[in-house]
Amino acid sequence: MAAPRPSSSRTPSSRLEGILADTDRIQELSDSDGEYEDMGTATQEEMANIAYLESVRIPIEDGLTTESSAVTEETLQAVLPFLESNPNDFPLNIFGLPQLQREKHINFLKHALGDYPRQFAMMDASRPWLLYWSLQGLTALGYDISEYRERVAHTFTLAQHPEGGYGGGYGQLPHLAATYAAVLSIVMVGGSEAYESINRKAMWRYLGQMKQPDGGFTMAPGGEEDIRGAFCALVVLSLLNIPIKLPPDAPARTHGLTSFLDNLGEWVSECQTYEGGISATPLNEAHGAYAFCGVGCLSIMGPPKEMLNKYLNMSTLIHWLSSRQCAPEGGYNGRTNKLVDGCYSHWVGGCWSIVEAATASTNICNRSALARYILSAAQAKKGGLIDKPGKKPDAYHSCYNLAGLSHAQHRYTYEAKVQEDLGGGDLDAPYYWKAQGDYDDEKVWGDTDIVNEVHPIFVIPFKAVHDCRRYFMEKEGF
Questions:
Q1: What is the pLDDT of residues 160-198, one digit of tens each?
Q2: Best exposed site among 213, 286, 325, 469 by fewest CB in 10 Å?
Q3: Domain CATH code at residue 403
Q4: The total number of structural domains that make up the chain
Q5: Are 448 and 100 in contact (CB under 8 A)?
Q6: What is the set of active-site residues?
């Protein structure tokens, strides 16, 4: 049965010592040189952090212990020391939280763009992702990635399949996930040489093979159909200004479809579950990453206010997204009864700007709590960002933690009136977003903790988005 959570009668310092005591953890802290030292009396910053965390605890907890609830509690006990104190001994910002370790993260991501040992052979097909995650993480940190322009163009020239799309590397079959990461990487480094390395006509024909009669897209010829395919396909179609008319040999044409957009909104609608979230395919479990793919897909098709309200139940979606923010951690999980994970700082946190644009609402999520989790619990001691304390850093979690921090810090608004006045065109809705200042209410970051703006749909820099779109808008045909 449910019972009120008893408030702690211990002093902050004794409570902190208890949390930091030698107990079983989910996983040994990979960046720790040993056991925690006795913290002694709590500092003023620690006492303020503890008071904050007590204020956001859920006051009622289920008295039934399950395997899931036990792991959740273990996770909380592993995370709390980082939210309450500073085990990594990072310099603190003016709010008493660890500063963003910018240079350490830059060095980590630059290293991630280098060679990998043979143990990473299993990641061979993911090479486009490793480039995208690393490059996007670097741009968010303010690092100039132009030095990688030639290498990126060369890498993806080899990975491009003669029949269109990109595989993981030379000789590999194309896949929409690899294609998405490759195109975003090329767009980020920019320049005519990189742009012209893309065979847009072959890409058009390749995407035509992915379009399905029910409106969705498969990830590869004969592969699985899910909402990732729809989002990845529309990102590529929009950025490269590829016609939305299906190629003559597209199999979906035999079922009466003529456009990449035919039946797509209805198919995304069917992916919304009874909980309010969005699943990979109709009748599956809602998931944070699929939620972003769903709202992102609709926001490429047209203005968020029009498309999301037409195809989604917004009240249940907002409820589900809100339920993903863990208390008192402040970070997000990806599914019901799952653990907090830094990557959902973007996959769920990135949905909020789109949802706010669709509902004409503001401040409907707790951005400061998310930023607190990223700065306090998601920075690895030696560089890179992580899932949660005890996990090792990687480019994936670095990219999406930093994107989540950008969502928390910057206001992204949709200029519906500008689009209406200009008349709009095919898949041009993403180009009416703009960054409109920073969030100042209850912020927990200092000036040195601010990351760069990230386009809310494409998750790359705004300038890269507009430079690419402008380049291909000025080209006639393929």
A1: 999 999 999 999 999 999 999 999 999 999 999 999 999
A2: 213
A3: 1.50.10.20
A4: 1
A5: yes
A6: 287, 335, 338, 341, 343-344, 387, 394, 397
